[in-house]
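Components:
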Amino acid sequence: MTHTPKNVLIVGAGGVAQVVAHKCVQHADKFGGIHLASRTLDKCQAIIATLAQKNLPSDAITAHSVDALDVDALAELIRKIDAKIVINVGSSFINMSVMDACIATGAAYLDTAIHEDPNKVCETPPWYANHEWRKKDAFKAANTTAILGIGFDPGVVNAYARLGVDEFFDVGSVTDIDIIDINAGSHGQYFATNFNPEINFREFTGVVYSWQNSAWQTNQMFEIKRTDDLPEVGVQHSYLTGHDELHSLSKFLDVPNIRFWMGFGDHYINVFTVLKNLGLLSEKPVTLDDGREVVPLKLVKAVLPDPSSLAPNYTGKTCIGNKMRGKKDGKPSEIFVYNVVDHKAAHEEVGSQGISYTAGVPAVAAAILIADGVWDVGIMVNVEELDPKPLINLMNTMGLTTRIQDDNGDRLLEFS
Amino acid sequence: MTHTPKNVLIVGAGGVAQVVAHKCVQHADKFGGIHLASRTLDKCQAIIATLAQKNLPSDAITAHSVDALDVDALAELIRKIDAKIVINVGSSFINMSVMDACIATGAAYLDTAIHEDPNKVCETPPWYANHEWRKKDAFKAANTTAILGIGFDPGVVNAYARLGVDEFFDVGSVTDIDIIDINAGSHGQYFATNFNPEINFREFTGVVYSWQNSAWQTNQMFEIKRTDDLPEVGVQHSYLTGHDELHSLSKFLDVPNIRFWMGFGDHYINVFTVLKNLGLLSEKPVTLDDGREVVPLKLVKAVLPDPSSLAPNYTGKTCIGNKMRGKKDGKPSEIFVYNVVDHKAAHEEVGSQGISYTAGVPAVAAAILIADGVWDVGIMVNVEELDPKPLINLMNTMGLTTRIQDDNGDRLLEFS
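Structure:
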């Protein structure tokens, strides 16, 4: 079976987009033309300029300027460049319009994070039902593939969850999936967020939803803490946090307890708590003495370091994975399926830090699987609805290796 | 000797102005007409409206609108109402223009805080030489009295310092004056400043100047800490802080070590440190994503509670005084001269919290001493250049009692 090479369009020009751009070019043999579009052409060209630093051909990507909220303009671009796959790694506010452009053109759609409404912080679970899943019928009618949330988390951790249920425990015995996201790296700044502060803080300012005893439970941020001794990064504290993947895993897997834990140092929590309690993370405008209205969070964003400026000095590692409990041969069993990325190695390879790296590589792996026809399912799916094994095997060759810790020790996970 | 009653003009309409207004009306027999002027007439009328709540006559004060930065307009008002005494308790930015209006009209001038240039945070010591003292010749030529910094600190603590040197130690033996300012009160908010945050934070963002070994020494804020067990407020921590009074006491008293210590709780320091390190206390504008320029400090001011809103719920006490060391009859001796104010009692009496109360009462006492001719010196002076005894005695009758702790115990300080 032969494939006509598929043209790919990357939408967005931040840290994750840079990783996606480099990885697409590294695997250019899997694609036809590679295109990069953002509202600001300069940002696309800045990413393209980094290719040469990594001995990649600068002419491998074509830059375009487009407003991704303008469905007609984006659809016109997709048709003009004949893109068959759109990798949306722009802001979380553009998912719905990029999806509409894909439905209109039949281009496969990928993203790495859930849609956010700029005017709402925390919506009713399951979150996907508020936005993305409303397009399921339209994607099906158009016989067009949409893979939601195929970064690392959400994304690879959904695949890990599916693997846990299918491969490593007795059928129907998995009781607990704890997704643990630790960034044990250091950026050397007093304080910074690893991606857009406006999105970053939204994850922690609202109610924390988790799936426990097969129902939604609510907590406050930093209310529930756990401590794990993890491979390569050692003893780490993390906190029960609301996160995208819970909202699909709770629907597609029959597992009563699915929780997400994000690692935070005491210093981060202190700064966050001060800013939150003072009202400085609010999206509601306040009035200055001169009568102007300013959204506090936008001012905080302006004083914090630009996340993209952190990469060159980032040291240390990330460790993200799933602790899963169930029964194996009738006996209680626990395993940890995980990935570790070194910030410095990521920067040396693609010019971005490890967090962008873990988000961008899976999206390109998924694009390759669509290009190869393996994941080109013609409907809208979340990652746990797909066969995880091709993704794990492919990522092992692309810089994101999956390992497993169980009673048999710690080893690379691969499938024949 | 009889005096024609002197008309008094209060400039400003904040918390201290409210105290000054109430105290002037309480002592209306010492003055002629009492006038209150601010840029915003409504603010003056709001203060006047509080008189009735304390069973004082509402018609005892006349409100005026004036821009205190407009020397001609202010001089015209002073002439129109025939004010002989101007009590400047407006923002720290207006001292120089109010002084010019007093020089032009011959009205006596009083203020409670040093002039601040909106564009400079920390200036070269002695600070008075940068601004106020440049008007010394003009006040002398006009035979007009100006008393600088006659709040509590600066103000009463300068009088305490003078008393220490003149009364309680062997001549020329005082080696150390440590001015300690403790607010052991609670406003019940997560965080708030007790007066305008724009001015409040300026005290702690620059270099800390102190007078040690007869020279200026510089430190960082929160670098040097002391702990004292103080009357009524107990064990309290305070930190070496730059403050107005050091800049005149170092010139007018021959004392080698003069330091100012301000009390801060760990929570205050934490919030301050986070805000400062993030750049949120900066007066330099930052650019938002939408291109607008915003001064971070002005946004912080907008999210913090209005200091004037704190008074009704303020509980606890302030303790401000001078620890002084020298020799008495040839032997080492230490004394503490101090005042304690209860926030709730202050609010019940004049509708303001204790910190405004300690700043406002001395200014009115000084105005009475000018009206009586006792302090109407016809030149510009700092408080320590005047006889402190009439001030101490008068304040003892006005709600601000001075006490002394020495080898003979703790007792009211009064002079016959």
